[in-house]
Amino acid sequence: MNFLASLLIASSLAAQTPPTPIQTPPTGKPDAPKPDQPPAHYTLGPGDQLKISVFGEEAMQNQIYTIDSDGSITFPLINRVAAGGLTVAEFQDRLKARLADGYIVRPQVAVEIVIYKSQFVFVGGEVRTPARFAMAGAMTLPEALAMAGSPKETAANEVIVTHAKKPGPDGRVPDKAADSIHVNLKDLQLGRAGQDIFLQDGDTVFVPKAQRFYIQGQVKNGGSYILDPGMTVQQALALAGGLNERGSDRRITATRMIDGKLKSGVKLKLTDRVLADDVIEVGGRIF
C-alpha cells in the first residue's frame, strides 16, 4: 500500500469518529446544601424562625416569622397564634384550623423551620455533672443522661422525666400537674428502654438517690445494698449471695421503722417486701 492510499484511509476513519466534547468548567457556585431539618419530635420555642406559606394566597407565600418570648407569632387574619411547645406538624394543623375558622376555605399550609434555637433540658440528682444542657433538635433520654456523665453509684434504679407543660390553643399553660414518667435505669443502660423517650424544651430529668437496706447473719455476702422498688426478701438474699451452709430461710427477721418507731425481730417471709433502711438478720438452722 503506497503512502497516498494510507493517508486516504486514515482521513476516512477520522471523519467517522465523533469529536470529543470539550469539557467546560461549571460557572458560578454550586448549590449550597439545604440545612438539616430538625426531627419530627422537635418542639418549637421562642427564637425559632419559621417560613410559612398559605397556597393560593399571594400575600402569604414564603413569609418569615420569629416566635416571640411568649411562644406565639402574629399571623395575618388570625392575629396571635401559639406555637411554643408544639411540633412543626402540630403547629401547622393549628394554623390550618384557625385559618379555616371563617377566613380561608380549606387552607393548605406549609411550615418550615428556617433557624431553630438551642433549647434546654435539666438533668439533676445522682449524676456526675448535673446541669442545664442545650439541645438542638430532638434528644432522647439516654442522650441526656450521657451528657450529664451517667448516673453515679449512689443512684436509684429509676429515672424520673417530667415533661414541660405545653400551651393550649389560646396560648395559656394549663393549670394542672406536669406529666411525669418513671423509667427503669437498668433497662436504660441495657438499651431496652429510653430510645423512644424524646425530651422537650424545659424537661427535667431527675435521678433520685438510692434507698438502701442492710442484710447480715447467715448469708455469704452481708452488707448494704441498693433497694429496688418492690424488692422481696428472696431477691435481697440473692443479692447477698444466698444463704451460707448454716443459713435458714425460715429464720429471717428485720429491724425496721413501723409507725414512726424502730422495731426489731419483725418476722419476714421470702415473699415479703423489703423496706428502706431495713436491717435484715438471717438466722442459722437448728439441728
Task: Describe this protein's structure.
The N and C termini lie far apart (122 Å). The chain is built from five helices and 17 strands. It is elongated, with a radius of gyration of 34 Å. Helix content is 16%, strand content 31%. The strands form five sheets. A five-stranded mixed sheet has the order 7-6-12-9-10. The longest helix has 14 residues, at 3-16.
Question: What structural keywords apply?
Answer:
287 residues; alpha+beta; wza like fold; Outer membrane lipoprotein wza fold like; 3 domains; five-stranded mixed sheet; 5 helices; elongated
Task: Provide a quick synopsis of the model.
Helix content is 16%, strand content 31%. The chain is α+β, with helices and mostly antiparallel strands and 287 residues long. The longest helix has 14 residues, at 3-16.
List the helices and strands and how they pair.
Layout: H1 3-16, E1 49-54, E2 63-66, E3 72-75, E4 79-82, H2 88-100, E5 109-115, E6 119-125, E7 131-135, E8 139-140, H3 141-147, E9 158-162, E10 180-184, H4 185-189, E11 198-199, E12 204-207, E13 212-217, E14 223-226, H5 233-239, E15 247-258, E16 261-267, E17 279-284
Parallel strand pairs: 6-12, 13-17
Antiparallel strand pairs: 1-2, 1-5, 3-4, 6-7, 8-11, 9-10, 9-12, 13-14, 15-16, 15-17
Helical run tally: 5
Determine Rg (CA atoms, Å): 34 Å
Distance between the termini: 122 Å
The major sheet is characterized as: 5 strands, mixed
Helix-strand sequence: HEEEEHEEEEHEEHEEEEHEEE
| CATH second-level architecture of the largest domain | Roll
User: What is the number of E strands?
Assistant: 17
What is the name of the CATH superfamily of the largest domain? Outer membrane lipoprotein wza domain like
Low-confidence runs of at least 5 consecutive residues: 17-37
- Helix residue percentage: 10-25%
Structural class: alpha+beta
Query: Any idea how many domains?
Result: 3
Query: Strand share of the residues?
Result: 25-35%
Classify the fold: give the CATH topology of the largest domain: Outer membrane lipoprotein wza fold like
Shape: elongated
**Briefly, what CATH class of the largest domain?**
Alpha Beta
Average pLDDT metric: 83
Strand order of the largest sheet: 7-6-12-9-10
